[in-house]
Amino acid sequence: MGHVDHFQYGALTPVIAYLMSCLGSALGLLCTTRARAVRGWVRARWLVLGAASIGGTGIWVMHFIGMLGFSVRGTPIRYDVSKTIASLVLAVIVVGVGMAIAGRRNAGWTGLVLGGVVTGGGVASMHYMGMAALSLDGRIHYDTLRVTLSILIAVVAATAALWAALHVSGFAATGGAALIMGVAVSGMHYTGMSAMSVRTEGAHGLAHGVEATQFLAPLITGISLFTVITLFMVALSPSADEIREEAELSARLARLEDNRGTSFASGNAEGGRVSHRRRGENDPRDYFRSGR
């Protein structure tokens, strides 16, 4: 049995992974807060950014950084590029689908739970797809009970994340929710990792693929660009409160215009009746009709 070490760099990788999960969650909540206040394609744009932030940075990047600290004694570890990228795409898609389900009008708790199950199941699938991308000189085995527990944690974490995405607003609440989401995502990851064991005896396969460190340069570049662009868009856009205030002001102005138009029309009609009466009073024909 190969010795599995999830923390070959000590606390460095889990701490960085947790911070990245918090960052992605916070970015996603900032985006979904704005999505709740708008409609149409603008809403869709914010939801896509929110799904990419939570699913990409908050979940997948956390998973990948956590894997940097993973090692098995006696065998190198490589990663299949296509499966690794597919796991990233899956994470973003399932978060987006969960938001769409839970965010429907009148979805209620049923929609929230359904969205949480879909997203949580997808996140767990992402995790184990990422594990399937591993290539090493050995055979990987999983403990069924711990795998089941990791899936349950993923569903609960996803449900909580969707609830936060649909309800949380304000700087303090967003930050607190992001910290909690980071704990949930990290808990799911390391629970799933604890379910695995590696048997190296009798294994003669050769690890193929790329090393995890070869992902670092594109990963850091991509995360940095995405984070800066998303923060830039959030900073330049009005907040949810400002959007609501503007909508309320526009509605009040529209009502004032309607009332003014109604008053003007009523005044014209009344003026017409008065003018007609006055013309009738001065009409000479009325004198002869009255027999005077």
UniProtKB/TrEMBL annotation:
One of its GO terms (cellular component) is membrane. The keyword Membrane applies. It comes from the Bacteria. The chain crosses the membrane at residues 12-32, 44-65, 85-102, 109-129, 149-166, 171-190, 215-236. Residues 280-292 have a biased composition (Basic and acidic residues). InterPro entries: MHYT_dom (IPR005330). Keywords: Membrane, Transmembrane, Transmembrane helix. Residues 261-292 are annotated as: Disordered. This is Membrane protein.
